[in-house]
Design brief:
The complex is a heterodimer of chains A (about 150) and B (about 200). Chain A has about 150 residues and is mainly β. Chain A has strands spanning about 15, 25, 30-40, 45, 60, 70-75, 80, 90-95, 95-105, 110-120, 125, 135-145. Chain B is α/β, with parallel strands linked by helices. Chain B has helices at about 75-95, 110-120, 135-140, 150, 180-195; strands at about 5, 25, 50, 55-60, 65-70, 100-105, 125-130, 155-160, 165-170. The chains are: A mainly beta (about 150), B alpha/beta (about 200).
Amino acid sequence: MTIPKSQLLSQNHMVEVEKLPDFVIKAGNAKSFTIPFQIKYGYHIQADTVNDDNLIAAELTFDNISGIDLGKLDYPEFKEFQLKGTEEKLLVFDGEFRVMVEIKVSKSAKKGSYSLPSSLYYQACDSARCLFPRRLNFQLPIVVSD
Amino acid sequence: MLIIIILTFACQNNGDTKQTAVENPEIVAGSTDEEKQFNLGESALDFNLPDLNGEMVSLNSLKGNVIVIHFATTWCPFCNAEAPYLEQLYQDYKDQGVVVLIIDVKEPLELVQEKLQDKYNFSFPLLLDSEGLVAASYCPPEVLPDLERDEVMLASNLLIDAEGKIQFFSLLDSEGFDAKLIELKAKLDALLTSS
């Protein structure tokens, strides 16, 4: 199941979720999947780790669906972005970045297709602008098999 | 008393060739030629915003002072990098009557208090532009038209002379980021000297 276009980037988003294949997993199992994100050319977002409490770290969150739990999240390694004229370095993602998420399906989960509401909260800048934080909503296509 | 307000700069291009107290007002804007087409020497738009104590501050009431304004948010990396230099600027110039204001855009008082005032211990007012209307009013309409007007103004700096005319404007430019406000201070020195 692909992500409907309407759920992808709005005109005002600087990050998009690339087309996701179904995440197929058997009931009673746990499995890790990769969610690929693409940041608009010229922009970067604060990474999941920030070195200043005031900054807004990227955060991937998921709603609850009975029988499906989310385990470990693995964000990629950040890059350092030097603020010119200062000693400050931002920890950022740019270009494509992939987050690995562990999905656990209970034994009692019913077989079938599920759309797990998900969102990435992020704050983006380019060379000339820092944009208000945004929340990119999308669906994770999960298929519970026998 | 000089008031420094950095933030928004109103762009009214009506073809006037008004003279200002300082020759050659300078716009330090973004990297494109279009962004440099700002009308310095125009009167800054008035505003009336609350500070963190709820006291209203109007730009017109500060006329007669040189004003530096910085538009900011708590999460803006460049605003945070510039913050200590704004405080230092105020300390260096307050005896010459220069006023510094930060206008925070679309954030609640409690957040601004904790993340900006408590963190940096500013000695000058932080004003709350809770709807972003003041920031938007100063934004040049032709700059980055796809973005929200108030968003374009984040991390910008403005210098207004004692007559209420805009004498310096800088939008964020990360390649030429001037956290230490060197260009602004050069312009401020020239303005104070000439007056």
